[in-house]
Write a structure and sequence with these properties.
single chain; alpha+beta; 30% strand
């Protein structure tokens, strides 16, 4: 029974994780990447704002004020964060998401789900051969 629960939970996590990874990839497609300095963080994660400054590909300095919701909790004033931005509108900035790390987590969830599923299959109750 435990194998079935583990397989179900990790299988669900695997599906949700890969969905989020694909959405992040689609959101970052065609965007440039830069290192930004956090100038200000205000409010909480659901309703706060974050102000970052970075050098765009053309060398211009860009200062962007964004909602804090999707930014990592480690983004504090004075720290540096990786950002993805639209080269045509550099003020349209979002935190860069390392998809390689997301794929590693997805792989782990998938392997655990498959292994647990196989364990559940191998330990299933078999009907007795009554004559």
């Amino acid at each position: 029974m435990a194998c079935i629960i583990v397989a179900s939970v990790t299988g669900l996590l695997s599906v949700v994780w890969i969905g989020g990874t694909i959405a992040a990839w689609a959101g970052q497609a065609g965007k440039a990447r830069a290192t930004a300095r956090v100038l200000e963080v205000s409010g909480n994660r659901s309703s706060g704002h974050i102000v970052v400054e970075f050098a765009a590909g053309d060398g211009s300095r860009v200062k962007a004020d964004e909602r804090r919701r999707s930014w990592p909790g480690t983004a504090r004033q004075g720290t540096e964060v990786e950002v993805a931005y639209d080269p045509d509108n550099p003020a349209d900035v979002q935190p860069f998401q390392d998809l390689g790390r997301a794929l590693a987590a997805w792989s782990l969830f998938t392997v655990v789900a498959v292994a647990s599923g196989l364990g559940a299959y191998r330990t299933r109750a078999r009907p007795s051969a009554a004559a």
